[in-house]
Each structure stands twice: as C-alpha cells, then as structure tokens.
From TrEMBL:
Name of protein: ABC transporter ATP-binding protein
Key words, A-Z: Amino-acid transport, ATP-binding, Nucleotide-binding, Transport
Domain ABC transporter: 7-237
GO molecular function, a single term: ATP binding
Xref: Gene3D superfamilies: P-loop containing nucleotide triphosphate hydrolases
Cross-referenced SUPFAM superfamilies: P-loop containing nucleoside triphosphate hydrolases (SSF52540)
Similarity remark: Belongs to the ABC transporter superfamily.
Record-linked Pfam families: ABC_tran
Origin species: Marinibaculum pumilum
InterPro entries found in the cross-reference section: AAA+_ATPase, ABC_transporter-like_ATP-bd, ABC_transporter-like_CS, BCAA_Transport_ATP-bd_LivF, P-loop_NTPase
C-alpha cells in the first residue's frame, strides 16, 4: 500500500526506443528484509534497478517509505534514502579507497561524514587497511566491498544491489552475502538482483522470478527455491 515503509515499486515499465525491457513490474521490500530478483541474462533485472533509482525514464511508481519518487531525480533519491550498487561497480580507479568513500557521502556535514566513514570501516575492515590504495588496484572482492561501502556512506534505508556476486570466488561471495544479511539485521530494506539464484534465494526472505521483462513468480524465497521449474531452470543440480 502507499503508506507502507521500505520500497514499493508499482507497475513499472521501461522501454529502450520501442522495445519494452520491463513491463508492469510490481514488488515491495519491507525494512529489515531481503527481496531477491532472479532471472536469466537480459531478463530486465538491471533495467528494473536503474529505473527504480531514477537513472532511466520509466512509467509507473516508485515509493520510498510511502513517498512518491516519480518526479525526484536520482541524486535526490540518494538523499531521500535510496542507494544502488550497480553491476559495473563504477569506482574512480585512480583515486584512493577513502576518497571513493567520501564521494558517497551525499550532502553531509563533516562530522557526519567521519561517522559514516568509521561505520563503513567497521563493516569492511579490509577497506580500512587499504584506505590509501588506489581503487583500481583492488581485487574484485575488495572492489565490490568498496562499491557497497560507498553506497552505505549515504546511510540508505533501501539498498539495491545489482549482481554483487558477479565474477567473485565462492569464498568472497559468502563474505559479501554475510555482509548483506548484517545490513538486513540493521533494518535496511534490500533489493538484490542476482544470476546466482541459489546464493540469492538462500539469504532472501522473498523471491521474484523475472522473465522477458515481467515478474512471473513471487513468494517466500524458500518456496521459490523448492519449486520444480525453478530448480530446473535456475538452480541446476549443484
Ligand atoms: P544481465 O544480467 O545480462 O545484465 P538483465 O536481466 O540485467 O541481464 P537488462 O540488462 O536489464 O537485463 O536488459 C534487459 C533488456 O533490455 C535486454 O534485452 C537488453 O538488451 C536491453 N537493453 C538493456 N540496456 C539497453 C540499452 N541501453 N539500450 C537498448 N536496449 C537495452
């Protein structure tokens, strides 16, 4: 409903030229929960997140804690409490880890910024050890941590993550998912898009299957993970 807290996406549609990549998607993410969107390459998952962030023109409604964000540009959505860690993790390679983090602190005073920085370092001790190192020299896992840390600098109430496990070794994937569950415990509403359906459904509370731009199945993550068709199409035998 319109007054619900967390994120509410209602009837969202996005077209590139004349081709609709996302058709009429609705989903909600309550504070302190993880919603996973799984689906094949090209299903429209990244398009959904980029449109929810306000980076692409879209039809439909996005609400944050009941507030309609339709006319709110992306940078103000960050200030309002919405944050996206994009699949490309676009960091400033030549800049130090800490300077990348500072850029994530949106319109905040100095003491607030230092407090956010300490909170991020507490969450990611590895980033503190490497705070003077150029972002471009980090490992893939460290880069993902930095992209997440930068998103957390704006203290989001809703965090959207696009394929956080992409290209990472299993041990690092486990570490990243452990951090995502810790953020949930802090009350953040998390919208997680993943091709790694198994890992995503293991941590998520609710799951959504996206196919050809539409949500074709939604429900408790455990039920989706136990569904015969989903096992066959997305979970394999592993
Ligand atoms: P992946 O996991 O491979 O990134 P996805 O589920 O995130 O897949 P999207 O990247 O959202 O899927 O793409 C959805 C559809 O929209 C695809 O058919 C894609 O080719 C198309 N698309 C994405 N970006 C653009 C663009 N900038 N211009 C035109 N078409 C695009």
């Amino acid at each position: 409903s319109a007054s619900a807290t967390g994120l509410a996406i209602e009837a969202l549609s996005v077209a590139y030229d004349k081709v609709e990549a996302v058709h009429g998607v609705s989903l909600q993410v309550a504070p302190g929960t993880i919603a996973a969107v799984i689906g094949a390459n090209g299903a429209g998952k990244s398009t959904l997140l980029n449109a929810a962030m306000g980076l692409l023109p879209a039809a439909g409604t996005v609400r944050l804690d009941g507030r309609d964000l339709r006319r709110v540009p992306a940078e103000e959505r960050v200030a309002a409490g919405l944050s996206l860690v994009s699949e490309t993790r676009d960091l400033f390679s030549a800049m130090a880890v800490e300077d990348n983090l500072r850029l994530g602190a949106f319109r905040r005073g100095r003491s607030d910024l230092e407090e956010s920085l300490e909170a991020v370092y507490a969450r990611f001790p590895r980033l503190k050890e490497r705070r003077r190192q150029a972002a471009g020299t980090l490992s893939g896992g460290e880069r993902q941590m930095l992209a997440m840390g930068r998103a957390l600098m704006s203290r989001p109430r809703v965090l959207m993550l696009d394929e956080p496990s992409l290209g990472l070794a299993p041990l690092i994937v486990r570490e990243i998912f452990r951090i995502i569950t810790a953020l949930r415990a802090d009350g953040v509403a998390i919208l997680l898009v993943e091709q790694n359906a198994r890992a995503a459904l293991e941590v998520a509370d609710t799951g959504h299957v996206m196919e050809l731009g539409e949500i074709t199945m939604s429900g408790p993550a455990a039920e989706i993970a136990a569904d015969g068709r989903i096992i066959e199409s997305y979970l394999g035998l592993g």
